[in-house]
Amino acid sequence: MTTSHYIAGRWVEGQGSDCISVNDPALGQPFAELMAASVAQVDQAVTAARDALPAWKNTSASERAAYLRGFAEQLGQRREALITLQMRNNGKPRHEAEIDLDDAIATFGYYAELAEQLPSKNRDVPLAAPGFSARTRLEPVGVVGLIVPWNFPLVTSAWKLAPALAAGCTVVLKPSEVTPLIEQAYGQIADALGLPAGVLNIVNGKAETGAALSNHNGLDKLSFTGSNSVGSQVMRSASAQCRPVTLELGGKSAIVVFDDCDVGQAVEWIVAGITWNAGQMCSATSRLLVQDGIADTLLPRLQAALEQLRVGNPLTEEVDMGPLTSQAQWLKVAGYFATAREEGLQRLAGGKALDRDGWFVSPTLYADVPKDSRLWTEEIFGPVLCARRFATEEQAIAEANDSRFGLVATVCSADPERAERVADALEVGHVWINSVQAVFVETSWGGTKGSGIGRELGPWGLSAYQSVKHVTRCLG
């Protein structure tokens, strides 16, 4: 998987100026290197996708579905290798790496089914005016650039790649330079399936490669998942070309716990929402709003639960949480620990980097955090939970919505009507009620406010790669 790039159906070595070092975060050491793509190679990839588009978009829906099912089957055949690589390069515990792979497999299977339904999407449109008839035609957007992050490689790329191929688009995929290897499996699978050359292209690199792709005038659409700072750059690039974008960006999500909750269950949901993937999730529920009547019971239980989590190397230990994925992220989280000390926050658990090899931090809980604290308002992207108390339902809703982000939220209550009412009032794209963050391919994914533009997954994910054309004819 260390051959750098897959362009026009061939594996080629990188010709760029950057050398990408691939690290094992549990050891803090590199285990592979590859050369980045040059600007010229990015251009070659876009050209290959453009050349492949006419034939690919005219393949039958059943043929595209067969390829997608092939991707799902081939991922399953590579199961142990991909799980191990996800553990080694991301630091994910085995159970998380297994869920990632199952998610990617399910995504390709789901969009294979939607692809087969595409002919029925072309329909006549009734018109009020006499003498005319009309029909709707759904067409692929064209050549799309897909830029994916390091926290859920293989998964996020599946969320983009599967619907794009189902719609009849051709793609250029740029993985994160932090986790470039696992997406190489998609190129290997394309070879194994005989996917037409140029339909899928993969270019690896750092900022230069990403900029070359997002600025390329040969793209018809960009889909980006990552930080708000890079997302704004991608949006500026798209605006220069007046091309559509899908942006899945950051979050500072709330979990609201009412005092009628079972404390044990609430603790389970809270811990999962902040420690899954070591908190490196745009959906991490990092703001805990707990009602006054349960707070004094819940917070000590939560503190104990976080302190009991097993943190370690997933390749050598049975762990609940692995390391942070990169040294840069480790330094960022450590910086927030320093900020918490400067702000005088009340630390109940964690709040420190662990004294061992690798990029480990402790699961962390701060209590009674002021609303103007940087830790309450900024996305940390680590296992750092900030808690505040509330008195009324109205206060909980107001404080949960008081954020520049709007990705997800969780509501915990034994009162079904209240839970549904609060879910409807929250200004986010996805709400869980009395649950861990279970994500299903049939549902939508995306947010409001600063959390992005557009939706992935479900039929909305397919629509993101389709263009609507109306054909109107005069009957006279």
Structure write-up:
With 476 residues, the protein is an alpha/beta fold. The protein has 15 helices and 22 strands. The protein has helices at residues 39-57, 61-77, 79-90, 94-117, 155-167, 184-193, 207-214, 228-241, 263-275, 292-307, 327-343, 374-377, 393-401, 416-425, 458-463, and strands at residues 5-7, 10-12, 19-24, 29-35, 123-125, 132-140, 143-147, 170-174, 200-202, 221-225, 245-248, 254-257, 287-291, 346-349, 364-367, 384-390, 405-406, 408-412, 430-433, 448-449, 452-453, 466-474. The protein is globular, with a radius of gyration of 23 Å. The mean pLDDT is 96.
What structural keywords apply?
476 residues, alpha/beta, seven-stranded mixed β-sheet, six-stranded mixed β-sheet, 15 helices, globular
Distance between the termini: 62 Å
Q: Give the tally of β-strands.
A: 22
> What integer value in Å does the Rg equal?
23 Å
Spatial ordering of strands, largest sheet? 14-15-16-13-12-18-19
Number of helices: 15
Strand content: 15-25%
The average pLDDT score comes to: 96
The low-confidence runs, each spanning 5 or more residues with pLDDT under 50, are none
| Structural class computed from helices and strand pairing | alpha/beta
| Major sheet characteristics | 7 strands, mixed
Helical content band? 40-55%
Q: What global shape is seen?
A: globular
Write the layout of secondary structure elements.
Blueprint (H helix, E strand, L loop, with lengths): L4 E3 L2 E3 L6 E6 L4 E7 L3 H19 L3 H17 L1 H12 L3 H24 L5 E3 L6 E9 L2 E5 L7 H13 L2 E5 L9 H10 L6 E3 L4 H8 L6 E5 L2 H14 L3 E4 L5 E4 L5 H13 L11 E5 H16 L19 H17 L2 E4 L14 E4 L6 H4 L6 E7 L2 H9 L3 E2 L1 E5 L3 H10 L4 E4 L14 E2 L2 E2 L4 H6 L2 E9 L2
Parallel strand pairs: 7-8, 7-10, 8-9, 10-11, 12-13, 12-18, 13-16, 15-16, 18-19
Antiparallel strand pairs: 1-2, 3-4, 5-6, 6-22, 11-21, 14-15, 17-20
Helix pairs in contact: 1-7, 2-4, 2-6, 3-4, 4-5, 9-10
